[in-house]
Amino acid sequence: MKLLILPGLYNSGPQHWQSLWETSLPNIERVQQENWDQPELDVWMGKLSAHIETCKEDVILVAHSLGCALAVHWISSLMTSPLHVKQVKGIFLVAPPEVGQNPFPAISFCPMPEIRLPVASMLIASDNDPWCDVALSRHWAHCWGSEFHMLVAKGHINSDSGLGKWEQGQSWLKTLTQIV
User: Fold this and answer.
1) How far, in Å, CA of 110 to CA of 17, rounded?
2) Which of 12, 26, 34, 114 is the most buried (most CB within 10 A)?
3) CATH of the domain at 147
């Protein structure tokens, strides 16, 4: 099983849990985007599709922030013509942003799909995330059929949250890999 990291806006820096996982966990790689600063949904979805096409094995998407919106949009767009959906076995969603807030730096990601996802998923949110109210994250988890976990006072669950390699997150990801 391959783990594909989907960072959000501006990519994930060297102290971000996604970057630390990339250097310490086996069989994990980052999906690179052309423009981390001015994301366009169609371009990002194309990069994700192209990356998955090169994978020889099943994958789990490990998404943070805008990467969550990418994952949900991508899999939603394929539900009527499931080109790659069979290869994606799960989605690990951390701190999805409220893409409809004004102003939002990636307007093409709005609105967030609210459909049941065709794969196992887990959503982790923080009760003080400045990019999304925890009630909205809980609502999305319900819509998507995602297992929901809430962190206390961890902000946007990024480098500033002081999580390091985020062992609890790795444990939840391991649980998701065992479900799929």
Assistant:
1) 26
2) 12
3) 3.40.50.1820
| Dihedral, 15, 127, 109, 85 alpha carbons, nearest 10 | 80
- Torsion over CA: 88, 91, 96, 101 (sign): positive
Q: Which residues pair with 125 in a beta bridge?
A: 150
| Domain that residue 84 falls in | 2-179
The answer to whether the CB of 112 falls within 8 A of the CB of 72 is yes
The C-alpha atoms of residue 161 and residue 17 are separated, in whole angstroms, by: 10
Q: How many domains are there within the chain?
A: 1
Tokens matching residue 83: 């080109």
Contact between 117 and 87 under an 8 Å Cβ cutoff? The reply is: no
Eight-class DSSP state of 86: G
Strand partners, 3: 28, 60
61-77: pLDDT as tens digits? 999 999 999 999 999 98
SS3 60: strand
Q: Is the dihedral of CA 45, 48, 54, 57 positive or negative?
A: negative
Give the per-residue SS3 of 94-147: ECCCCCCCCCCCCHHHCCCCCCCCCCEEEEEEECCCCCCCHHHHHHHHHHHCCE
